[in-house]
Amino acid sequence: MEPDAPTPTPTTDPVAATSDPEESAARSSRGRSSADPERRDIMRWNIGTLHQAWYAACQSKDLVAGKPLARTLLEEPIVLFRAADGTATALIDRCLHRNAALSKGKVSDGCISCPYHGWKYDAEGVLVRVPSEGAGGERKRLRAERFPVREQEGLVWVWMGDPEAAATVEPFRMPIGGAEGWKHYYMYTDFDGDVTDLAENFMDVPHTAFVHAGWFRSESKHEPKRAEADVVRTHDAVHVTYHQEDDTIGFSERFINPDGAPMTHTDRFYMPNTTRVDYLWGERRGFVISSTITPVSPTRAMVFTSIAYRFGFLNPIARLFLPWYTRVVINQDVDIMEVQTGTLERFGRRRFFGTEADVIHRSIELLREHRLNGEVGVPPKRLEKRIEFWM
Ligand code: FES
Ligand SMILES: [Fe+2]
Description:
This protein is of the alpha+beta class. The protein has 8 helices and 19 strands.
């Protein structure tokens, strides 16, 4: 068996283009390996250096032994499965033979078999069996592209950049409340929107009174309340500290804040795709909401949200009540992001005007735009700014 050359774009005679075995062998000897990525015009290759990152592909609990799981990250189809020892594995979701989707095949003994002619790949992506060649037929060692994978804090992360660079960067450490009294759960949500717009939404306070009216904050019936915040932009993060200790959110004040402690509210954005929002009331009560955003396409994303909470002896009640409440609130954001994304698609471009409250958004945009442009030119300077707005 000869490894095929990549199928050329048909010219005048598509049969002649691939039928000469010598021609085919010559192509494959040009140094191209079957495991080399194919640079198509997809997000993976056209977002500057933003592909050089770990992206969450699924929750650990959803990657069960013996079953393939199809995911699309940065428009690249990927199949995930567990090796014989349980290690999470990610391969390109495209059989080397005639390009059927491996995710439609079967997993056995830690290998995945294509549903079409049964070619079988191990967890390294190595082609280990070709049924049509019988036992022991001499085979070239073909390999399917394999992506570095890490599993931590209950998520399976896939590295979408150069494989050699994967060891130099850690996946984001999702705060899942390992400390005393903290509990945690994940929510998975499909969103319309690109990563920048979604991160801005997750960090945005002024929308809460409108999108989440009555659920999270409400538009002030009296005089709007003035809020101040310190914004710090570093080379790879945006930190926002709010100074409005009488701010309240959501449900019963007695439930979340029995001590009447002032609320501490900080929001953070970590490059390239993760936000963390902390609401703390003294030592005893708090929420930490962290969302990591994985682009599926320029206008679709998977969002994994960790909700960590500490409500003391009320934790068991919170466990029953919070998933319902947070699902309602997140779905309100899903709806508004669908509205925004639809408008952006209709107009084909962004044309944003802002207020002081949008310094946060602009900071996220600047950091991401620098990487989107391949990190050429001067990186965004450090910024420290106090902003004020009304809510
Ligand atoms: S297409 Fe996969 S084995 Fe033929
Ligand atoms: Fe929201």
